[in-house]
Amino acid sequence: MSWYALLVLAVAAERVAELVVARRNAAWTLARAGVEHGRGHYPVMVALHTGLLVGCLLEPPLADRPFGALPGWPLLALVILAQALRWWCIATLGPYWNTRVIVVPGAGLVGAGPYRFLRHPNYLAVVVEGAALPLVHSAWLTAAVFTVANTMLLTVRLRCENTALDQAAPA
User: pLDDT tens digit string along 83-104?
Assistant: First the structure.
Protein backbone atom coordinates (compact mmCIF):
# COMPACT_ATOMS: atom_id res chain seq x y z
CA MET A 1 0.00 0.00 0.00
CA SER A 2 1.36 3.43 -0.91
CA TRP A 3 2.07 6.17 1.62
CA TYR A 4 -0.65 8.26 -0.08
CA ALA A 5 -3.25 5.52 0.45
CA LEU A 6 -2.16 5.41 4.10
CA LEU A 7 -2.61 9.18 4.30
CA VAL A 8 -6.14 8.95 2.89
CA LEU A 9 -6.96 6.11 5.29
CA ALA A 10 -5.60 8.22 8.17
CA VAL A 11 -7.92 11.05 7.11
CA ALA A 12 -10.77 8.53 6.98
CA ALA A 13 -9.90 7.40 10.52
CA GLU A 14 -9.89 11.05 11.59
CA ARG A 15 -13.38 11.38 10.12
CA VAL A 16 -14.53 8.39 12.18
CA ALA A 17 -13.08 10.06 15.28
CA GLU A 18 -15.05 13.21 14.38
CA LEU A 19 -18.24 11.17 14.15
CA VAL A 20 -17.61 9.69 17.60
CA VAL A 21 -17.13 13.20 19.04
CA ALA A 22 -20.16 14.47 17.13
CA ARG A 23 -22.39 11.68 18.42
CA ARG A 24 -21.36 12.39 22.02
CA ASN A 25 -21.83 16.12 21.52
CA ALA A 26 -25.23 15.63 19.88
CA ALA A 27 -26.46 13.75 22.94
CA TRP A 28 -25.13 16.54 25.16
CA THR A 29 -26.73 19.38 23.15
CA LEU A 30 -30.03 17.58 22.63
CA ALA A 31 -30.23 16.96 26.38
CA ARG A 32 -30.00 20.75 26.79
CA ALA A 33 -32.95 21.48 24.47
CA GLY A 34 -30.75 21.65 21.38
CA VAL A 35 -32.58 21.86 18.07
CA GLU A 36 -31.30 20.19 14.93
CA HIS A 37 -31.51 22.06 11.63
CA GLY A 38 -30.72 21.02 8.06
CA ARG A 39 -31.26 17.29 8.35
CA GLY A 40 -31.98 17.08 4.64
CA HIS A 41 -28.51 18.10 3.49
CA TYR A 42 -26.60 15.98 6.01
CA PRO A 43 -26.73 12.71 4.01
CA VAL A 44 -25.50 14.63 0.95
CA MET A 45 -22.57 15.94 3.00
CA VAL A 46 -21.69 12.43 4.19
CA ALA A 47 -21.85 11.08 0.63
CA LEU A 48 -19.75 13.95 -0.71
CA HIS A 49 -17.02 13.53 1.90
CA THR A 50 -17.01 9.76 1.41
CA GLY A 51 -16.72 10.34 -2.33
CA LEU A 52 -13.73 12.61 -1.75
CA LEU A 53 -11.87 9.86 0.08
CA VAL A 54 -12.81 7.20 -2.47
CA GLY A 55 -11.77 9.49 -5.32
CA CYS A 56 -8.43 10.13 -3.64
CA LEU A 57 -7.81 6.39 -3.39
CA LEU A 58 -8.95 5.51 -6.92
CA GLU A 59 -7.99 8.36 -9.24
CA PRO A 60 -4.16 8.30 -9.00
CA PRO A 61 -3.74 4.58 -9.75
CA LEU A 62 -6.58 4.38 -12.29
CA ALA A 63 -5.35 7.44 -14.19
CA ASP A 64 -1.71 6.35 -13.71
CA ARG A 65 -0.84 9.68 -12.16
CA PRO A 66 2.59 9.96 -10.56
CA PHE A 67 3.36 11.77 -7.34
CA GLY A 68 4.93 15.16 -7.98
CA ALA A 69 7.17 16.30 -5.14
CA LEU A 70 6.87 20.02 -5.83
CA PRO A 71 3.10 20.28 -5.55
CA GLY A 72 2.75 17.17 -3.38
CA TRP A 73 4.78 18.05 -0.31
CA PRO A 74 3.47 21.63 0.11
CA LEU A 75 -0.08 20.35 -0.39
CA LEU A 76 0.53 17.69 2.26
CA ALA A 77 1.51 20.52 4.61
CA LEU A 78 -1.84 22.21 3.82
CA VAL A 79 -3.69 18.96 4.61
CA ILE A 80 -1.94 18.79 7.97
CA LEU A 81 -2.69 22.45 8.70
CA ALA A 82 -6.36 21.89 7.77
CA GLN A 83 -6.52 19.00 10.26
CA ALA A 84 -4.95 21.18 12.94
CA LEU A 85 -7.48 23.95 12.28
CA ARG A 86 -10.36 21.45 12.38
CA TRP A 87 -9.28 20.08 15.78
CA TRP A 88 -8.70 23.61 17.08
CA CYS A 89 -12.35 24.30 16.16
CA ILE A 90 -13.49 21.10 17.86
CA ALA A 91 -11.51 21.91 21.02
CA THR A 92 -12.73 25.50 21.08
CA LEU A 93 -16.43 24.65 20.68
CA GLY A 94 -16.21 21.72 23.07
CA PRO A 95 -19.60 20.00 23.42
CA TYR A 96 -21.20 22.47 20.99
CA TRP A 97 -19.13 21.21 18.04
CA ASN A 98 -20.92 18.82 15.71
CA THR A 99 -21.03 17.54 12.16
CA ARG A 100 -24.75 18.28 12.31
CA VAL A 101 -26.31 21.70 12.87
CA ILE A 102 -27.59 21.45 16.45
CA VAL A 103 -28.07 24.70 18.30
CA VAL A 104 -28.90 25.20 21.97
CA PRO A 105 -31.24 28.21 22.19
CA GLY A 106 -29.74 31.11 24.11
CA ALA A 107 -26.25 29.61 24.26
CA GLY A 108 -24.63 32.48 22.37
CA LEU A 109 -21.81 32.43 19.87
CA VAL A 110 -18.29 31.34 20.71
CA GLY A 111 -15.73 34.09 20.14
CA ALA A 112 -12.56 32.30 21.23
CA GLY A 113 -9.93 30.30 19.37
CA PRO A 114 -10.24 30.47 15.59
CA TYR A 115 -13.73 31.94 16.00
CA ARG A 116 -12.04 35.26 16.91
CA PHE A 117 -11.05 35.52 13.26
CA LEU A 118 -13.79 33.74 11.28
CA ARG A 119 -17.41 32.86 11.94
CA HIS A 120 -16.99 29.39 10.41
CA PRO A 121 -13.30 28.39 10.51
CA ASN A 122 -14.14 24.68 10.34
CA TYR A 123 -15.43 25.19 6.81
CA LEU A 124 -12.13 26.81 5.84
CA ALA A 125 -10.48 23.57 6.97
CA VAL A 126 -12.95 21.56 4.86
CA VAL A 127 -12.33 23.69 1.76
CA VAL A 128 -8.54 23.54 2.10
CA GLU A 129 -8.50 19.81 2.80
CA GLY A 130 -10.97 19.07 -0.02
CA ALA A 131 -8.71 20.74 -2.55
CA ALA A 132 -5.31 19.81 -1.12
CA LEU A 133 -5.79 16.14 -0.20
CA PRO A 134 -6.51 14.92 -3.74
CA LEU A 135 -3.88 17.21 -5.24
CA VAL A 136 -1.17 15.76 -2.98
CA HIS A 137 -1.12 12.90 -5.51
CA SER A 138 -2.39 14.61 -8.68
CA ALA A 139 -6.05 13.60 -8.30
CA TRP A 140 -7.12 16.84 -9.95
CA LEU A 141 -10.47 15.48 -11.18
CA THR A 142 -11.44 14.48 -7.62
CA ALA A 143 -10.32 17.89 -6.35
CA ALA A 144 -12.34 19.72 -9.02
CA VAL A 145 -15.53 17.68 -8.59
CA PHE A 146 -15.36 17.89 -4.80
CA THR A 147 -14.68 21.63 -4.85
CA VAL A 148 -17.63 22.39 -7.13
CA ALA A 149 -20.02 20.09 -5.24
CA ASN A 150 -18.75 21.30 -1.88
CA THR A 151 -19.27 24.94 -2.90
CA MET A 152 -22.91 24.19 -3.65
CA LEU A 153 -23.32 22.22 -0.42
CA LEU A 154 -21.59 24.86 1.71
CA THR A 155 -23.93 27.51 0.29
CA VAL A 156 -26.85 25.51 1.68
CA ARG A 157 -25.04 24.58 4.88
CA LEU A 158 -23.90 28.11 5.74
CA ARG A 159 -27.35 29.54 5.09
CA CYS A 160 -28.85 26.85 7.34
CA GLU A 161 -26.27 27.28 10.09
CA ASN A 162 -26.35 31.08 10.07
CA THR A 163 -30.14 31.09 10.26
CA ALA A 164 -30.10 28.58 13.11
CA LEU A 165 -27.47 30.53 15.04
CA ASP A 166 -29.29 33.83 14.52
CA GLN A 167 -32.61 32.33 15.68
CA ALA A 168 -31.01 30.83 18.79
CA ALA A 169 -29.05 33.94 19.78
CA PRO A 170 -29.82 35.34 23.22
CA ALA A 171 -32.22 38.28 23.16
Answer: 999 999 999 999 999 999 999 9
| Contact in structure between 2 and 66 (CB atoms under 8 Å) | no
What is the domain extent for residue 53?
Answer: 3-107+116-168
CA angle 59, 122, 106 (to 5 degrees): 145
Evaluate if pTM is beyond 0.90.
yes
Q: How confident is the model at residue 1 (pLDDT cuts 50, 70, 90)?
A: confident
- What is the number of structural domains in the chain? 1
From residue 154, give the alpha-carbon distance in Å to each of 59, 66, 108, 115, 120. Answer: 24, 31, 22, 18, 11
Domain containing residue 9: CATH number: 1.20.120.1630
Average model confidence (pLDDT) across the chain: 96
Q: Rounded distance, CA 139 to CA 59, Å? A: 6
